[in-house]
Amino acid sequence: MQHFPIFLDLAGRRVVLAGGGETAVAKLRLLLKTEAHLTVFATDPCAEIEAWAEAGRLRLVRRTFGPGDALCAALAYAAEDDPEADARTARLARADGALVNIVDNLKGSQFITPAIVDRDPVTVAIGTEGAAPVLARAIKRDLEERLPAGLGVLARIGKAFRAAADRLPMGRARRDFWADYYFDAGPRALAKGEETVRPALDRLLEVHAGRRPDAGRVAFVGAGPGDPELLTLKARRALDTADVVIHDRLVTPGILELARREAVLIAAGKEGFGPAVAQADIDALIVEHARAGAHVVRLKAGDPTVFGRLDEEIAACEAHGIAFSIVPGITAASAAVAGIGQSLTRRGRNSSVRFLTGHDVAGFADHDWKTLAAPGEVAAIYMGKRAARFVQGRLLMHGADPDTPVTVVENAGRTDQRVIALRLSELEPGLTAATVTGPALILYGLAPRAAETALADLPDLKEAAL
Ligand code: SAH
């Protein structure tokens, strides 16, 4: 992010603009929405600017912009549509200490004016750092359609009511009141006429003031494999309303971004053999926040019910009478198998599939290797990077075919997904040689579809394909 978005209070501040043509008019239209003191320098101003000057909405100085003209100005716009004149204005204004924008010249500007969706006092600013003005316009159009024109009216009335609403306790009670207003009671009242909005707010406040404080609760939410688009709508809603989000280390920043801005984010996860927060401490953390009345989202990678120590956390909630719910997510096995164009089960090949963990609390985990070693078996091995050699040894010892396909999918379901197609005999040192740094799922018994087809059709290409 090269340009940091801020909203500047221009009330009573001086803003200068050099230019008298169409470009100047377009900028002035925006600036006239503010309460800035506008001064325009133009030798030959167009009629619109003349009219604004006559109406007292700006001060018009009929000469070229000169040294000292931007003194005490917060912002200066060079809008003459003439590179040389604009560069001169920019140089002078900068010397006067103003922040300078040359219209349509990103490089020569110290700040840029974003595309704006105006539902005053609600303002949405859209910036693409000059990369894609077309995109900014499309987003603006989309938002214009989505944000009802009445939103500005509701926000204005709501703003004047803020002090009255302060009688509600801070936090969730107040938030619930405002959510009710903006998304339910407010729009309904507005449909009947603007004058009914304020009385509706009074009534709504009485209703909310009479409510008992909300009890805390916990949602165990699956974050999926890491791509925000693979979140469920329920997961998104939970993140949107969370007071506290306690998340695994595997949960990606893109997903954490979706948490309510005011939510407290706590990283409390275990990752492979790295530093870990003790499970008992995580349990205690969940309980502590829920008991304080918070809506806690316990955000777990993939599906919370798969190798997530969910039961221990649920037990902690139950022990304290805390209400909880589970929002399933897409588990790594589903993402990984989708990533190689395969199916976890297939008629005639495998009618069951196992989810295994490579290691558990006691170390490398033992399984029914004999059954797994049979032809056609499929298993999704979680936390298997370190255990790969152990798994390989056990399976071979129990008679598995050394040619059984084994596919490692790193960062499954993410843009940086990597597929390493191996055979059981080469799982190690193949996996180590591939230097896998992200989370990885080992699909035993499955090859990427392309490789599989190549093998079936052209047996002599087997070596090349793998
Ligand atoms: N609850 C999670 C699993 C937690 S155990 C789920 O349902 O997916 C952690 C293991 O999951 C990691 O060691 C890795 O084997 C696997 N994993 C999680 N996310 C992954 C991803 N995006 N790609 C590959 N494997 C992943």
Describe the structure.
- Pathway: Porphyrin-containing compound metabolism; siroheme biosynthesis; sirohydrochlorin from precorrin-2: step 1/1; Porphyrin-containing compound metabolism; siroheme biosynthesis; precorrin-2 from uroporphyrinogen III: step 1/1.
- Its EC number is 2.1.1.107.
- GO terms for molecular function: NAD binding; precorrin-2 dehydrogenase activity; sirohydrochlorin ferrochelatase activity; uroporphyrin-III C-methyltransferase activity.
- This protein is α/β, with parallel strands linked by helices and 466 residues long.
- It has four domains: 14-113, Rossmann fold (3-Layer(aba) Sandwich), CATH 3.40.50.720; 151-209; 217-329, Cobalt-precorrin-4 Transmethylase, domain 1 (3-Layer(aba) Sandwich); 333-464, Tetrapyrrole methylase, C-terminal domain (Methyltransferase, Cobalt-precorrin-4 Transmethylase, Domain 2, 2-Layer Sandwich).
- Helix content is 37%, strand content 19%.
- The chain has 18 helices and 19 strands.
- The protein has helices at residues 22-31, 47-54, 83-95, 133-146, 151-160, 162-165, 172-192, 197-209, 233-241, 253-256, 279-291, 310-319, 332-339, 369-373, 388-397, 427-433, 449-457, 462-465; strands at 14-18, 37-41, 59-61, 73-78, 99-102, 115-119, 122-126, 217-222, 244-247, 264-267, 295-300, 323-327, 354-357, 359-360, 363-364, 379-382, 405-410, 418-423, 440-444.
- Strand 9, helix 10 and strand 10 form a beta-alpha-beta unit.
- Residues 454-466 have low confidence and may be disordered.
- S-adenosyl-L-homocysteine (SAH) binds at residues 225-226, 250, 300-303, 306-308, 331-332, 335-336, 382-383, 409, 411-414, 439-441.
- The site of S-adenosyl-L-homocysteine has 24 residues, from helix 13 and strand 19.
